[in-house]
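Chapter review: from sequence to fold.
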Amino acid sequence: MKLLFAFVFLILLPVGIYAQKTTSTQKKIEALYNEALTLSQQGNSLKSVQRLYEILKLDSTYYLARFALADLNHEAGKAEEEIENLERGLAHSGDSYPAGFKFLAEALYKKGDYSEALTRIEHYSALKKTINPAEQLLLASCQFAVNAVKHPVAFHPVDPGDSINTEAEEYWPSLNAEANELVFTRLITKDKEGKKIAYPQEDFYYSLSDSGRWHKAKPLGPPVNTEENEGAQTLSADGRLLIFTGCGRADGIGSCDLYISVNKDGKWTLPVNMGEPVNSGAWESQPSLSADGETLYFVSSRKGGKGNMDIWKAEKTGASPDGVPQFGNVTNVAELNTPGNDLSPFIHADGKTFYFASDGRPGMGGTDLFMTRLENNKWTEPVNLGYPINTFRNEEGLTVEIGGEKAWFTSNRNPGHGRDIFYFTLSDSLRPDPVSYLKGFVVDALTGKKLKANIVLSNLKTNKVVRSISQEENEGDFLVCLPSGNNYGLNITRKGYLFSSENLSLVDGYTKNRPREITIRLQPVVAGTFTTLKNIFFETNSWQLREESQTQLDEMVQFMKQNPGIVMELVGHTDRVGTESYNLELSKKRAETVASELVKRGIEPYRIKSRGAGFSVPVGDNATEEGRSANRRTEFWIKEVKNE
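The C-alpha cell string follows.
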C-alpha cells in the first residue's frame, strides 16, 4: 500500500492527543484502528473503510483515520476522495506529519491541479529541509507544469476521419516516408455481427492516402495479423519492413519480443522473431527504425539499464539471403534514460531528431513527450514538448512526417471513442530538419524488366555512405530519404551491368516540391555502352577535381576491379562558353585528370583511354544554365570487353 505510514504512525502518536478523551473511547478507537489495519491487510477494503468511519464518528479529529482512508482511496483509484481525506487529515495534523503534504501534492499533480500541488510540495520541502530524488522530481514537475500552463505551445489536433478512427480504439500510428500509407493498431472488441468477444484482439490496419484523403482502413491480414495480439509497430521509410511487438508466443524469448515481416511484391512475409541480442529474456517492445535502416531503437526491461523501462538501440549487421535485415551490437541509450520509464522512441528521417516519452523527467504528469537532437555524436538535453501537447495523462507514441511539420499521436480526447489517432502541426522549435526523398526504379535498359540491384547513397562532402540497400533487399525499386543541406551521390550496381550514378543536391535546402521519382536504366556490360559520371566535379574553368568527386572515383575503381576484362574510355565534354580550341583542350585535360586518378588507385594504365570532345556533342541547350550544366560532363565508355 502507498500510505503504510498511516498505520505505523499509531505507535508514534503523542500521548497528549488523548488527554481529553476517556479511557474507554481511546481503547475503542485503538481497537477499531487495529481491526481496520488487519482487514486492509487481508484485502477486505470495504470493511476496513467502515471501521475507519466508525472511528471518525467517535473522534472527527483523528487524522490517522483520514490518512488511512486516503490510502484505501488511492488503492481503489478514487482520486477525489483521496484528496479530500488527505486535506481533512492535514487540517488536524498540521505540520506534525509532513509526509501528508507530499502525498497530497502527488494526488493533486496527477489530476492536473498543478498550482495547489506546487503549494503543498513546497511546504513539504520547507518542513523537511532535505528531500530525496523522487521528491525533487515532483517539485520540479509541479514548477514546470505551472509555468507550462501559463505559456502553452501551439496545438490544434485534427481527427483524420472515420476512415481511420472508429468506435473501437485506434493507436500507435506509423507512416512511410511518402506519408501516403498509415499503419496502426486497432483493438477489436466485437465480432463481425457486432457481438462482444470474450478476449479483445489487437490487429494491424492500414489506410492509404490519395490527394490528402485517407481511404477506409483495412486489416493488414495474415500472416502478420493472427489470433494473437500484434501491436507497437514501426514501418520502414520505404514501407517494405514492418517491425512489431508480439507477446507470449511459442517462439518467444521473453515475455514480449520484436518480430519482423518483409513486404515482397505487395504481400507480407511470415513474421520472424528478431532473435538475440535484440530480444532477451525480458520485455522488448515499441521499435523505431531509422530512415537509413541502419539503427533500430526499442524499449526493454532487460538488465543493465538505468530504470524500469529503458531505450536501447541495435545496429544493422547485414541481411539474410532472403532480404531480412539482421541487427546486433545492442547498447543502452544511457543519455536519455532515467530511473523511471523511458518509452516510445521515434527517430526522425533527418537522422538526428529524436522523440520519446518519459515519466522520469519534469513534466505534466504520467508520461510526457520529449525531444532531443544528436549533436557531435551526443544527445542534447531533452526538451518537454509542452502544454497542451502533454497533459496529466499519458502521452506517447508520437511520429513525425519526414517534412517535419506534421506529427501524429494517440489521444482519448473523443468521449465514447477511447483512444483515437490525431495529427497536428508542430511549432517551429519542436520540428526536425526537413527531409526529402527519392523514389527509384531500376530496369534493364534493353528489355525494361525490373532488376534487383545494389543501391548506395553517399554524402559527397563527407564521402560517407548514408544508405546502403543490398540486391537481396529490394525488388528493383527503392526509396531513400535525403536530409536537406547536403549533396548526395547515388550509385546503382549489378553484376553484368555498367554502373549508373545520379547527383542529388539539396545544398540550398529543401522544398516540398523536391521529392523525385526516377528510373535507372542499367546497360549490359558490352562494348559501346556508356554512363555519365554525374558525381565528377571540377573547379570552374579548370581540370582540378573537387573533393566531392572522391566517392565517384572510388565507385569507378570498384567497378573496374570487379570487371578485369574491361577496357574503358573517359570522354570529357564542355558547354559552348569560350572558343572551340579552349574547350577542346579543357575537356581533354579533365578526362586525363580522371584517368590519372584511377591509375593512382591501382587500375592498370592500358585499361584506361581518354579524350576530349569539347562542345561538339551537346545534350542540353547552351542558351540556358540548366542546359550548359548538363553539357559539362564526363562519360565512361566501355571500349572493349576481353575474356576474363
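Two observations follow directly from the output. The chain has eleven helices and 33 strands. The two ends are 79 Å apart (CA to CA).
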